[in-house]
Amino acid sequence: DSPVIIQGDGEQIRDFIHADDVARGMLIAARCSSSPLNLGSGIGTSIKELVQMIINLSGRNPEVIYDTSRPSGDRKRLLDISTARILGFEPKIKLEQGIGELIEWYRIHKNDTDSRFDFFK
Q: Is 100 exposed, middle or buried (0-12, 13-18, 19+ CB in 10 A)?
């Protein structure tokens, strides 16, 4: 829908990781470590970059409004994944690939939501 309203100014940096990479990382951690470790991409992406990536991959062009009257949260949340890397973990799925796969999945399944079990009913 248009407009898309983003809370904050969009400059906040986040670390995004694909669920498949998290699952693989958890298996590595379970086998190789008894200490806590961070699983992330180790790459910072601003919310503005993320929004633009989604727009580009979706083929849509909504108006984007950054609502600076709302809090943006922490300016930067970027994980240090050096311990996970020592154990052999390396994220394999890039953010753009994961978003592209999600958009394609949604296009195929967007009408399936009525046939799914609704836990809250």
A: middle
CA-based nearest residue to 81, from 116, 27, 15, 37 = 37
CA 6 to chain centre: 15
* Contact criterion met (CB below 8 Å) for 41 and 95: yes
Chain centre to alpha carbon of residue 44: 11
Q: How far apart are CA 6 and CA 18, in angstroms?
A: 22
Give the C-alpha distances (Å, rounded to integers) separating 50 from 16, 17, 53, 118.
10, 13, 5, 30
pTM of the model: 0.84
Tens digits of per-residue pLDDT, 47-97? 999 999 999 999 999 999 999 999 888 999 999 999 999 999 999 999 999
CB 98 within 8 A of CB 57: no
